[in-house]
Every structure is written in structure tokens, then in C-alpha cells.
């Protein structure tokens, strides 16, 4: 028996465990201090009433012989796929029901999709980045090249024909930077991918945070159905991080080496996946009702208010940042040329506020820091008051 040696090439991720240790040490030394966590990428608002009602109703159905359900379709129930089709149609994107696959979240699909592609492909991944894209490709032994995001390109790197790739990852709104591509920029990526016969894996997990006229989906761009797969999730849209439901769009027009990726993905899913629980799919379906949309929008607005508080504080302090307006993430430059971890330590030690060092998301994140809007209003205001005090006296 031989192991997949590629696993030994994975970089140990010390980011969140180091943060946890530092926070624990600090709390021991300062038992009176209330620590405020501005680094959390998880939501805090509860599921909305319409979703809870749908879950309860579905649970009752599962307990009655006449309405009980066993295995469902691996790719998701028609009712939910139809809801999602309608959601896209409202934005002018026409999808067929069989192009939509329901999953237990974007993370699984982002990893599992790689089953379809040869390990010989070269992969282009932004830096800084959501670490799952890198690690899943390292596990498969693929060649990775990086697409550097920086202040000059507003953390929105554009294609470079001298940097060819077979698979390209784009995440917009971006985690960790909060940056969002506009339509022209995405159109350039689509042109580049088609010219190179490359595939774009587009992560739209934060699309619900877009409030300006910017794309929510890569399929708003002409020609994208010939070169892109889109991953989306109800985790941040509707507080499903613990409930688990997402969806992936694999267009029927997506053909490589004369094979349709939609059929391959269907084959993969029907072989290795047995579907998302009926109760969860019913809950997800409630998100797309008129009342459900109103209720989830209220929670998103709640986070957006936090993002506005963080953004206005940074503006007043003259700190360079991006994100916040169309994203729950604010990506700031560390003041006084401090490194990411140096700034982390100062913020924790001097005022008990915890953020995420940008260097934890890749080398290009060094010197930057991520703040998130997923806390409570009171904590966010309190954290930003303490933050201002520290920066002014730095
Ligand atoms: N994609 C990005 C960019 C994320 O930040 C996250 C979670 O934080 C995910 C995907 C995972 O989403 P899910 O909870 O649907 O697995």
C-alpha cells in the first residue's frame, strides 16, 4: 500500500491555530479584558424565520409514512434547482435546470471538481487566496503558478498572456481581500480563458454582498458558459455555515476534448455523492421565496452596517483599505509599514481586538490585515473605538 505522497507537500496551516494560542495566552494574562474577534469568517446571525419554519415542516414530513423520503436525486431536488434557476433568471442569466447541482457547500465542490481534470494541468491561483484552492491542487500534485494581487492592481489581478494556465481560480467578491471584479474585467478573463482553452473556476460564495452594479455571477459575461464553472453557497448568503447547502453551475456548453463537463460532473456526483438532506434542501428553498429573500437581506444588511462602521473608521484614520462595500471583508494595509503579525500582536496586546494577518493567506498578503463584518453591532463599534485609539497613539 502506497500513500499519496502529495499530501506531504502540503504546507502546515498555522494561521488559525497560532491566532487561537495567542488569544488564549493574552486572555490568561488579562482575564478582565473582553476580547473582540474581528477575524471570524463565520456568520453569527441566526437562520431567518422562514427557513426555520421550512425545516420544521420538512422534519414533520420525514416523520410521517405518507410523506417520508429516502434517497433523493444526487444532484438535488427539482424544486430547489428550479428556485436557483429563477434566482439567476432575475439577474438576466438563463440556466437550464440540469446545469445546477445542489451540494453540501462550496468547499466540497471546489475540492471534488478536481476529480474531472488531469493532474498534468497547470493551475493559476491568486495570491493572497482562500487556502482551499491551493491545498486541493497540491493534494493532486498539480503545478501551481500564482497570480499576484497587490495595491497597484487594487487586489484584482488581470490576465497576462505570458502566464498560460489550464485552470484559473477567480473569487469575487474576494476572500480575503473583499475586492470585486467589474464586468469589463471579468470579460477580459473570459476572453483570455477562451483563447487559451482554459477553464475558470469562479467562486461566488459572497455574491449576496454585492450592492453596487457589479457582477454577481460570471455567467453575466457573454461567452462564460463556454469556459467557466461557478460555485456558490448559502453559507454567507443565508447563515447556512452549519446547515450546509451550496450549488454549482456546470453549463451544458462547457466542452473540453469533445466531452461535456456537465455529464462528467453528473457521473461523478451520482457515483460518489448521495445528495443533501431533504430537510436542508427545503430550508434552502425557503431562502428563495419572497419572504425568505427579505429576511436574509436583513441579515446581510446587518453585516453591511458593520462593514460601513469599519470602513469609515479606517477612512478617518487615513488607512488604505479595500472591500467592505460589496463584501463582508475589509482588507487594510498595516500602518507604519508594520508586518501582518506585528500588527496582529499590537492590536491584541494593546486593545484585545483580534483580526487575521494577511500573510496567512499567501505571501502577497504580508503587510496587510483582514477585518470581518460578521460580529455584532456593539462589538464592532467597540472594537473600532479601541482600534482608533491605538492607531492614533502608534
Ligand atoms: N469559498 C470561499 C471564498 C469561502 O470563503 C468559503 C468559506 O469561508 C467557502 C467557499 C466555503 O463555503 P461553504 O460553507 O459553502 O463550504
Q: Secondary-structure element order, as H and E?
A: HEHHEHEHEEHEEHEEEHHHEEHEEEH
Low-pLDDT stretches: none
| Helical residues, percent | 25-40%
Tell me the radius of gyration: 21 Å
- Distinct compounds present: pyridoxal-5'-phosphate
In CATH, the homologous superfamily of the largest domain goes by the name Type I PLP-dependent aspartate aminotransferase-like (Major domain)
Do you know the CATH architecture of the largest domain?
Answer: 3-Layer(aba) Sandwich
Shape assignment = globular
Please give the structural blueprint.
Elements: H1 15-29, E1 36-37, H2 49-62, H3 78-89, E2 100-103, H4 106-112, E3 122-127, H5 132-139, E4 143-148, E5 167-171, H6 183-196, E6 199-203, E7 228-233, H7 235-238, E8 246-249, E9 255-256, E10 259-260, H8 261-272, H9 278-287, H10 290-317, E11 321-323, E12 329-333, H11 340-351, E13 353-354, E14 356-357, E15 368-372, H12 377-392
Parallel strand pairs: 1-13, 3-4, 3-5, 5-6, 6-7
Antiparallel strand pairs: 2-8, 7-8, 9-10, 11-12, 12-15, 14-15
Helix pairs in contact: 2-9, 3-9, 10-12
The chain binds pyridoxal-5'-phosphate (PLP).
The site of pyridoxal-5'-phosphate has 13 residues, from helix 4.
Amino acid at each position: 500500500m502506497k500513500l499519496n505522497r502529495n499530501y506531504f507537500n502540503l504546507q502546515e496551516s498555522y494561521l488559525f491555530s497560532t491566532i487561537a494560542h495567542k488569544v488564549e495566552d493574552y486572555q490568561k494574562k488579562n482575564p478582565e479584558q473582553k476580547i473582540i474577534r474581528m477575524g471570524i469568517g463565520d456568520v453569527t446571525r441566526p437562520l431567518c424565520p422562514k427557513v426555520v419554519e421550512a425545516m420544521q415542516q420538512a422534519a414533520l414530513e420525514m416523520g410521517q409514512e405518507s410523506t417520508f423520503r429516502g434517497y433523493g436525486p444526487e444532484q438535488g431536488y427539482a424544486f430547489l434547482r428550479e428556485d436557483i434557476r429563477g434566482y439567476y433568471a432575475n439577474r438576466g442569466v438563463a440556466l437550464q435546470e440540469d446545469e445546477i447541482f445542489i451540494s453540501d457547500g462550496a468547499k466540497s465542490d471546489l475540492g471534488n471538481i478536481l476529480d474531472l481534470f488531469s493532474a498534468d494541468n497547470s493551475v493559476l491561483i491568486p495570491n493572497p487566496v482562500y487556502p482551499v484552492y491551493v491545498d486541493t491542487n497540491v493534494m493532486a500534485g498539480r503545478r501551481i503558478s500564482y497570480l499576484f494581487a497587490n495595491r497597484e492592481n487594487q487586489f484584482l489581478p488581470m490576465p497576462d498572456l505570458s502566464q498560460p494556465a489550464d485552470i484559473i481560480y477567480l473569487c469575487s467578491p474576494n476572500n480575503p481581500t473583499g475586492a470585486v471584479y467589474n464586468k469589463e474585467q471579468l470579460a477580459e478573463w473570459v476572453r483570455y480563458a477562451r483563447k487559451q482553452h482554459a477553464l475558470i473556476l469562479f467562486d461566488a460564495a459572497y455574491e449576496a454582498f454585492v450592492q453596487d452594479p457589479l457582477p454577481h455571477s460570471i455567467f453575466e459575461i457573454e461567452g462564460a458558459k463556454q469556459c467557466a464553472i461557478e460555485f456558490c453557497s448559502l453559507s454567507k448568503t443565508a447563515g447556512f455555515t452549519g446547515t450546509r447547502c451550496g450549488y454549482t453551475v456546470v453549463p451544458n456548453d462547457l466542452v473540453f476534448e469533445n466531452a461535456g463537463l456537465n455529464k462528467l460532473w453528473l457521473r461523478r456526483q451520482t457515483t460518489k455523492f448521495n445528495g443533501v438532506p431533504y430537510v436542508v434542501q427545503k430550508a434552502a428553498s425557503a431562502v428563495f421565496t419572497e419572504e425568505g429573500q427579505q429576511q436574509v437581506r436583513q441579515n446581510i444588511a446587518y453585516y453591511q452596517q458593520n462593514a460601513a462602521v469599519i470602513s469609515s473608521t479606517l477612512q478617518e484614520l487615513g488607512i488604505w483599505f479595500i472591500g467592505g462595500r460589496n463584501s463582508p471583508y475589509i482588507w487594510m494595509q498595516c500602518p507604519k509599514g508594520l508586518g501582518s503579525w506585528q500588527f496582529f500582536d499590537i492590536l491584541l496586546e494593546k486593545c484585545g481586538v483580534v483580526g487575521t494577518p494577511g500573510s496567512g493567506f499567501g505571501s502577497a498578503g504580508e503587510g496587510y490585515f483582514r477585518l470581518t463584518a460578521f460580529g455584532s453591532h456593539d462589538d464592532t463599534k467597540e472594537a473600532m473605538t479601541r482600534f482608533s485609539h491605538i492607531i492614533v497613539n502608534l
